[in-house]
Amino acid sequence: MGTILLLEKQKNIRKKPPHNEEPIHIPENNIDFYPDKNNSFNINTHKIILENIIEDNDSGVRKRTSDNIPQQTKPPPQPSFKYVNHKIISSYENASINIKGLSTNNSEAYKKSNNISLENIEPFKLSVMLDRTRHTQKPTSKQTAYMVKHHLMKATSITPQELAYELSNGATFRPALLNDFGANDTDWISNQVFALDFDHGITIPEALNKCVELNILPSFGYTSFSHTEAEHKFRLVFALNESITDICQRDKLQNALCNAFEESDQVTKNPSRLFYGGRSLIYEGYENRIDPDHIIKCYFIPDELKPVKTVKQIKQHPNKTNSNTFAAAKANQHDSNHLLKIEAIRRLNVSDMRALIFGRVFSHSDKEYKEYSFITVGKTPQPIICRNQMEVYYAINQIDLNEFTGIYGKVTCVLPGHDDNTPSAVIWNTDDGTPIYHCFGCGKSRTIISLVEAVARCSTRKAINFIKSIYNITFELTDKIKKRQQELIDNANYLDRDDFKITFPYLSKVIRTRKHHLQSLLLHFSQYVTEDGIELNGKILFWGSYPKLIEICRINPNSVKSMAQTLTLFTLLSLLIKVPHVELPDMILNKAKHIAAKNSLKKMVNFYQFPQYGYMTLHEAEEIAKDMVENNFSITGSSREFVIRTWGVELADKVFPQYVYENKRGTSERSDEKTRVLIKRIFERINTKGYCLVNEIISSKAMYEQWKRSITEVCNSYGLKTLRLNKELKSRYKIECDGYPSVIIKGE
């Protein structure tokens, strides 16, 4: 026989009373409990210790112990964790039941039998700031700015269970309490909750096992919106018995937790940090509390004793961003060089910025960080070498904007044209660690690049070069990258050359109004060529959602249909290759499936390749373009049905690889019936007048769209030609009409 490990909800066990006592029913565990002298209540911890319920190991039946079993309360040992479908099962050698499980009526029975008052016992609650708005995906930067500006995050007293439920259903919270309407580190009041964000380098089971090893147990954990089985992304939330009201003590504990869990995102250090909710709980240990004094003693390391982080280290570790020690320890003080830095930015003075950023050192003490030396000539940071343009942008956007501008807390707006009399501008980090300058007065947001552009009134290129010079960011290309990029750039230039127009007259005519979209795609994707880029059949794979492609091509954001027709045209003419999903590497295919599932899309994102333009790759496309021109092709007719009717299923599979199954089914019965009606109307008029005006057979928008899909098939099948009327045709067929509409005649 042994002490019960866990009272299982699914088992309906009821005990017979040893004497005439009214039972206490505990609904959470579906069990009736009869108090007697062997029951002990721990009022200090608000728990009932059930020491008189045991389990017979032989029969498996739970029994009452005899009255002579001594009363002992053993501390529970460390739990062991098992990871099962994002749920953590925690088992203890001894179990205790929280008193909140007692109903009002049953607690009366207990009070009568034990002469103990339970009126003053309240469920344990945490003090946090919570926005209960439920999100199904990560909030955008605009939604976050709205949340902060309109003070949707309210100070809340809430139980750990309730907080876990809210966060796992998409709510947003700040572990710290801030002043009313505050949103910055300077508004900090206290912390009773601490959270760590894990995005890279560790799985959920590994993190929870580490919690056990370090004896730092979370109250609960949950997955973030971007979590996948392939890449675990989650947060662990730790609770204290009492709130910390000393900012230095708070920063030390945050520092110690980040050091203990070095795989966590180091950007979570600032006191005003907010955390988005997620999708599901991964661990529940609501009784767990951490000991701040013990954790600080074991894991706290002053920031100046840590290795200095460079931009290169930021690039190599995307889950860690540069942390400014001055901001971390004394968030309510502004950098004394703030105005000097803004002036240096305005003049694009690299040497002054280097001196102001890298020439100031801070010494640590318990209460504050004090300046003890100033180097007039700034140190040159360690160089960071980027292999493509996007790596340059990434490195720049991970620079600490607080350190760069000297802005900590709320300041007057530095943007030209805004005469700000009261502090209204702050810097905050997005969920991926990108720092953003935002002014609540003028409502404008700026990244580090656009902020330099605005303050210095310079071009984007000058702003980027200025920042690169300060942080010693260099851009070097390998021969392989240069070759791949040049192929895409050569394609873009080839479309403007005379030999393209001479060699492919029909092709150049068909794409003339959309050629610039193709060139934009080529130049954009040339920036994403990397040394380790994923290739298929010797060509690099690119992908992008319709909204992103629309942005690249500068098409009206509401014109998704126009974007689809443009891509169909390019693929039909072999200027673009849509890669069939069956040919994708497993890693890429799984990623595409995840994106589709996350955004509730019926079809996966398309993957593209670009051939090397020339006669060998485009001579067949010239014949297709010729058919289009001779039959007055319109881009509005470039649908899947149009391709099937005109060139067959094989080409349709090439142009629409994501619809292979639908392509095999061919055209619908409804569209076939509309096509038969159009053919009948055409020959009725040709047999009578010798010609047929197109507008005579189109009675509705649906029939017009059907004609565009069927025009080439009908003309090729019945020897017809579609021409634009002119004076010679009007005279020959004695046509009297206004203007020069399209006419259908028999081929010669």
Brief overview:
The chain contains 29 helices and 34 strands. It is of the alpha+beta class. It starts with a strand and ends with a strand.
What does the model show?
By secondary structure, the chain is an alpha+beta fold. The chain folds into five domains: 2-114, no CATH class; 126-301, no CATH class; 325-475, DNA Primase, Chain A (Alpha-Beta Complex), CATH 3.90.580.10; 479-664, no CATH class; 669-746. The protein is 38% helix and 18% strand. The chain contains 29 helices and 34 strands. Strands 15-16-18-17-19 form a five-stranded antiparallel beta sheet, sandwiched between helices. Helix 9 runs antiparallel to helix 10 (350-358). The termini are far apart. Residues 1-114, 304-334 and 360-378 have low confidence and may be disordered.
SSE topology:
Layout: E1 2-3, E2 13-14, E3 24-26, E4 31-33, E5 40-42, E6 47-49, E7 53-55, E8 62-64, E9 80-84, E10 87-91, E11 97-98, H1 104-114, E12 126-131, H2 141-149, E13 154-158, H3 160-167, E14 172-174, E15 176-178, E16 188-198, H4 204-214, E17 220-224, E18 234-244, H5 247-260, E19 278-284, H6 292-299, H7 311-316, H8 325-329, H9 338-346, H10 350-358, E20 360-364, E21 369-374, E22 384-386, H11 389-397, H12 401-405, E23 425-429, E24 435-439, E25 445-446, H13 448-456, H14 460-471, E26 473-475, H15 479-494, H16 498-503, H17 505-510, H18 515-526, E27 535-536, E28 539-540, E29 542-543, H19 546-553, H20 560-572, E30 577-578, H21 586-598, E31 607-609, H22 615-630, H23 640-647, H24 649-655, H25 660-664, H26 669-689, E32 692-693, H27 694-697, H28 701-718, E33 720-724, H29 727-733, E34 742-746
Parallel strand pairs: 2-4, 22-26
Antiparallel strand pairs: 1-7, 3-4, 5-6, 6-11, 7-8, 9-10, 12-13, 12-14, 15-16, 16-18, 17-18, 17-19, 20-21, 23-24, 24-25, 27-28, 29-31, 30-31, 32-34, 33-34
